Amino acid sequence: MPLVDLDRFDFLYANRVKGMKSAATRDLMATLSRPGIISLAGGFPDTRAFGEEAFREISDQVATESAQALQYGPTAGLEGIKDIIVDVMAAEGTRANQEDVFITTGAQQGLDLVAKVFLDEGDAVLCEGPTYAGALNAFAAYRPRIIHVPMDRAGMMPVPAREALKKARKQGIRVKFIYTVPNFQNPTGVTLAADRRRELLKIAEEYDLIILEDNPYGMLRFDGQALPSIAALEQESTGGTDRVVYLGTFSKIFAPGVRLGWVHAQPGILHKINIGKQGADLCSSNLTQMLIHSYFRHANWRAYVRHLTALYKERRDAMLDALAEFMPKEVHWTHPEGGLFVWATLPSYVDATSMLPLAISRNIAYVPGEGFYSGGAGKNCMRLNFSFVEPAKIRRGIELLAEVVRERMELRSDLERGSQLGAQHGASRSAVGNSER
Ligand SMILES: Cc1ncc(COP(=O)(O)O)c(C=O)c1O
Question: Which residues form the signal peptide (predicted)?
Fold first, then answer.
């Protein structure tokens, strides 16, 4: 079928579709399964680490309650799993209320539901720059303005955040919430410093905003001290949960295939989210809630998280070592203390998006930085994933990538030399012409 037929109903699509674009990683998926390719593109945890035997055990336990596992469940989730979530959040230092926990189909659905209940067309969201592409995607359906706040090594910078809010207020733009991934952010691997978490809370109070704290990676810390979540800081300063909407997920501490996450928020917000979820999918899967319940109740999940953390730390080290060994000195990258990603910045004249086909032809893939911004920044950046590929392959992958980057840089030098020669040649010809005249 010719491609143009796919757009045959252009005149019928809703306006909201115009702002929606497919994530580069999702589009890349088919190419990346090609044999021989080293993909640093996905955001995949290593689910091979869990093992068939452990999976069979928890499945057998759930099979004894098959009637409930196969049934519809409450929109807010099964009670048992909420107790597990209270334990998981406590392990990260956040005191959660069982009644303030609401189950979602992955944190991704949490992003969609929060946007659904808060955003009217033209409202604004303050995000890190760059930010998680999947959040931009979820928000886009509600047609907001995205205001990126620059980051440094300590995360979103409070001074530009305040300036952006002041400017938006002057222009009559309603900012509804601040979206942040505070720990080992996707895509940069950067962690928001403790004093900035407090500052962000203060800013949200000053401007009466929600903070959407998205924390899939907090437990995957390799080095340094764990920091308090913004949700915990709010509890500390106000004694309860008010403006912080916290998103958690089992994707990175257990497995993304179960598609299970949660929102922790105050009852008013959860009531609206409940209505939003009823329209989206009625309820999340009982089957996977029960699988998780069985595993987290009976197995040593903390030991499994420690196992994953050790695995990823080794891979992070392999990536940082290889970058230092192979990349040209003009390339810079982040040094994450946990999570799944490193963010690399190439010289400003190298376009990582247009370089990708060449990289893939050399069997190495990454995600170009552009997709993590709304509006075209990040062209000379790339996200590199270290959680899914073994250390030796990471090293080889970075070596291949460095060759591609170096070629691009040399191409530019050649072009510059060429144009300088051309200019000199032109100048000498016109000088000759002048003297002849
Ligand atoms: C920052 C962030 N938020 C949310 C998600 C979505 O997670 P889930 O699998 O729970 O839907 C991801 C997935 O990679 C992520 O990186």
Answer: none
Q: Are residues 294 and 326 in the same domain?
A: no
User: Who's near 275: CB < 8 A, 6+ residues apart?
Assistant: 117
Q: In whole angstroms, what is the distance from residue 270 CA to residue 362 CA?
A: 48
Cβ atoms of 331 and 405 within 8 Å: the answer is yes
pLDDT tens digits for range 324-382:
999 999 999 999 999 999 999 999 999 999 999 999 999 999 999 999 999 889 999 99
Helix (H) / strand (E) containing 364: strand 364-365
Rounded to two decimals, the pTM is 0.93
State the sign of the Cα–Cα–Cα–Cα dihedral 315, 221, 48, 103: negative
- Residue 403, CA distances (Å) to 13, 262, 344, 381, 393 in order: 43, 42, 15, 16, 15
Residue position matching structure tokens 């994933």: 385
Atom 7 in ligand 1: which residue has the minimum CA distance? 107
Sheet holding 332-333, edge to edge: 332-333, 341-345, 381-385, 367-368
Mutation test residue for ligand 1: of 131, 251, 262, 277, the one with most atoms within 8 Å of CB: 251
Domains held by the chain: number: 2
- C-alpha closest to that of 273 among 423, 101, 141, 412: 101
Average pLDDT over residues 295-310: 94
Residues 237 and 317 in one domain: no
**H helices within 182-254, ranges in order?**
194-207, 230-238
Give dist(CA 259, CA 288) in Å, integer. 8
Instruction: Tell whether the model's pLDDT for residue 136 goes beyond 50.
Output: yes
In a domain, 248, yes or no: yes
pLDDT, tens digit, 9 for 90 and up, residues 225-242 = 999 999 999 999 999 999
Q: Specify if 377 maps to a domain.
A: yes
Radius of gyration of the chain (CA): 24
H/E run at residue 306: helix 301-326
For residue 216, the CA-to-ligand 1 centroid distance in Å is: 6
Identify the residues whose C-beta falls under 6 Å from ligand 1.
43, 106-108, 132, 134, 181, 186, 214, 216, 249, 251, 256, 261
Residue 189 Cα to ligand 1 middle (Å): 14
Model confidence pLDDT, tens digit, residues 38-62:
999 988 888 888 888 889 999 999 9
**Domain span holding position 313:** 9-49+303-417
Q: Is beta strand 38-39 parallel, antiparallel or unpaired with respect to 364-365?
A: parallel
